[in-house]
Write a structure and sequence with these properties.
The complex is a heterodimer of chains A (95) and B (220).
Chain A lengths: L1 H17 L1 H4 L3 H5 L4 H37 L17 H4 L2
Chain B lengths: L41 H30 L13 H27 L2 H31 L8 H32 L9 H26 L1
The chains are: A mainly alpha (95), B mainly alpha (220).
């Protein structure tokens, strides 16, 4: 099983790095180096790639912080309710 | 001889004298069960998710702006009116002050000071309205000098990015008006002011977004 996984990974990597056709799917790679348009797309793609991590990380971090703050607060003391006597009271019945 | 009775004789049941403290076979008692009250109100969580989607919306617009800005050899393009940097800078300070007054309003309601809350919400709305008015006046000047949505990519980008932010500020102002009316009627208390809290969150988001847009569009 391990050999099979290794062979799958190796063949996938060889296909990816060996195939020049795949590089043509990327606008940044296709236009070449030192091209302002390529640089512009690169900057935009990097920004848009980082933003979801920043947003989700902020939301998750805020929720975690609120949860830890709530844990640190002492629990309010529960008001003890008297247990109601459910068994039949002979005196009330009048017997 | 009669056969001995096969009935079992049950021992007399004796209730325990004292309740057993350690019922789990040794060691300390388990920790007390904490209450199931959630960390934040449902409305608070909903607004947090909404603000996440708004952040991604503006990230898309900023990404589109970056493509044209970084790819241009000369920026702003020639023969385009120059943006009013100083006036908008002062406007930025006004908008940031509104975020401060909004925060102070939330602190006031947590202290139970209703009159101060109403005053601070009013001041926040007034500062927001001033910001929008100055922006609108500057836009009229720019249109007069020839920068429109269809005049160039520069104009299209400017009005799209800044225009969407202005629409969000307008929406936040409407919400602030509702919050002002509710605060005057005493709907927000020290114990329950989730409505005001989420309004403050949205306002803070809209205000916090502006310096990023100002730096990107006016200064960069």
């Amino acid at each position: 099983m391990k050999v099979k996984n290794f062979l799958s990974l190796f063949s996938g990597a060889a296909f990816m790095f060996g195939s020049h056709v795949i590089a043509h799917a990327c606008s940044v790679c296709l236009t070449g180096a030192n091209d302002p348009t390529a640089d512009a797309f690169n900057a935009s793609v990097l920004f848009l790639m980082a933003t979801p991590y920043a947003v989700v990380g902020s939301i998750g971090g805020g929720l975690f912080y609120a949860y830890r703050r709530k844990l640190a607060k002492p629990e309010p003391e529960q008001i003890e309710q008297p247990v109601v006597q459910l068994r039949l009271n002979q005196e009330e019945v009048g017997r | 001889m009669a056969k001995d009775s096969t009935a079992r004789v049950l021992p007399e049941f004796e209730p325990p004298v004292a309740p057993r403290k350690n019922q789990f076979g040794g060691g300390d008692l388990p920790p007390p069960v904490r209450s199931s009250v959630p960390v934040g109100a449902n409305a608070w969580l909903a607004v947090v998710m909404f603000l996440g989607s708004e952040a991604m919306f503006f990230a898309g617009l900023i990404g589109a702006y970056l493509v044209f800005r970084v790819g241009a050899a000369i920026w702003p393009p020639p023969f385009q009116p120059r943006l009013p940097v100083i006036v908008t800078g002062i406007n930025t300070v006004i908008l940031l002050s509104s975020a401060l007054t909004m925060r102070l309003g939330v602190h006031a309601v947590r202290r139970g000071d209703r009159s101060k809350l109403v005053r601070l919400i009013g001041v926040t709305g007034l500062l927001g309205a001033i910001f929008l008015s100055v922006q609108g006046f500057e836009w009229l000047q720019l249109i007069h000098f020839g920068l429109t949505v269809s005049s160039s990519v520069y104009g299209g980008l400017f009005y799209t990015l800044i225009g969407f932010h202005a629409v969000h500020v307008l929406g936040a102002l409407v919400w602030l008006g509702v919050a002002f009316h509710l605060a005057r009627n005493g709907r927000y208390s020290k114990a329950n002011h989730v409505g005001l809290q989420i309004c403050a969150m949205y306002w803070t988001f809209v205000v916090g977004l502006w310096p990023i847009l100002y730096g990107l569009v006016y200064l960069y």
